Amino acid sequence: MTKRIVVLISGSGSNLQAIMDAIDTGQINGRIEAVLSNKAEAFGLQRAQNANIPAITLKHTDFEDRLSFDQAMIKEIDQYQPDLIVLAGFMRILTPDFVRHYQGRMLNIHPSLLPKYKGLHTHKRAIEAGDKEHGCTVHFVTEELDGGPLAVQGKVSVTMDDNEESLQQKVHAIEHVIYPLAVELYCANKLIWTQSGILMDGNTLPSQGYQVAPLD
Ligand code: NHR
Ligand code: GAR
Q1: Ligand 2 atom nearest residue 111's Cα
Q2: What pLDDT, in 10s, does the model give residues 158-172?
Q3: pLDDT reading at 216 higher than 80
Q4: Long-range contacts of 173-177 (CB under 8 A, 24+ apart)
Q5: Over the stretch 86-137, which tens digit does the pLDDT of each residue have?
Q6: Which helix (H) or strand (E) holds 125?
């Protein structure tokens, strides 16, 4: 059965676009039912509209606190009866109630090789640490920020001439490979969250997740 997907964004939505493209080519057996943004100016909303996908803005600044914002999002999202929630550059920390509501069916892409560099400004931190490699990780979302079990990881090499911006571009390129892959596997029931770990094709994944070969 085709999976029902809701995507949460805050910005450009290039990962949203990569997933939409992979649905169009038939790579992903899924359908994006709605795109939600906490920012009205997010370009990703336009990408959704261009594809005739409902594009909804819920401004977090219109709400008293995180709890009421998250409750409003749940109300909106659940109208679409999603099988999968995809965080694609969504920049608001989610409350435990929200996360528990979608436990095991919510993915995020984070721009670092988790468990390294949870939180923000990951590219800057990787450069300042002198890391030779960097990358991105798709993980299941839990209450612990960027701390949920890892599904898929993609690496890039950091070279002498890299700065924050160039590194961000390299990471983006591999994000657009690994996020569609993770969503593909999830929608094919090949990537499954269980209490005892993440299953891929029936096998428990190691803690660093499934490693995608570098692009070069
Ligand atoms: N929520 C939970 N509970 N768990 C996770 O793993 C989450 C999450 C919400 C978002 C994405 C995450 C990332 O990949 C994500 C994972 C925002 C912040 C943050 O500090 C941190 C991590 C992530 C997203 N947000 C600020 C806040 O006060 C706002 C920053 C801004 O608006 O620019 O919410 O990196
Ligand atoms: C991506 O690089 C993603 O890894 C990062 O934001 C970018 C969104 O780009 N996510 C976070 O930093 C989450 N805190 P996009 O809007 O073009 O997909």
Answers
A1: 4
A2: 999 999 999 999 999
A3: no
A4: 173/215, 174/135, 174/136, 174/212, 174/214, 174/215, 175/14, 175/15, 175/18, 175/109, 175/111, 175/136, 176/14, 176/15, 176/18, 177/18, 177/212, 177/215
A5: 999 999 999 999 999 999 999 999 999 999 999 999 999 999 999 999 999 9
A6: helix 122-128
Number of domains in the chain: 2
- Calculate how far, in angstroms, residue 92's C-alpha sits from the geometric centre of ligand 2: 12
Same domain, 97 and 113: no
- Closest ligand to C-alpha of residue 178 is 2
Domain CATH code at residue 1 = 3.40.50.170
Could you say which of 110, 123, 139, 176 is catalytic? 110
For residue 1, what pLDDT band results from cuts at 50, 70 and 90? Answer: very high
The boundaries of the domain holding residue 2 are 1-102
Q: pTM, whole model, 2 decimals?
A: 0.97
Q: Whose CA is nearest to atom 17 of ligand 2?
A: 14
Ligand nearest to the CA of residue 43, numbered in listed order: 2
Q: Which amino acid residue places its CA nearest to atom 4 of ligand 1?
A: 145
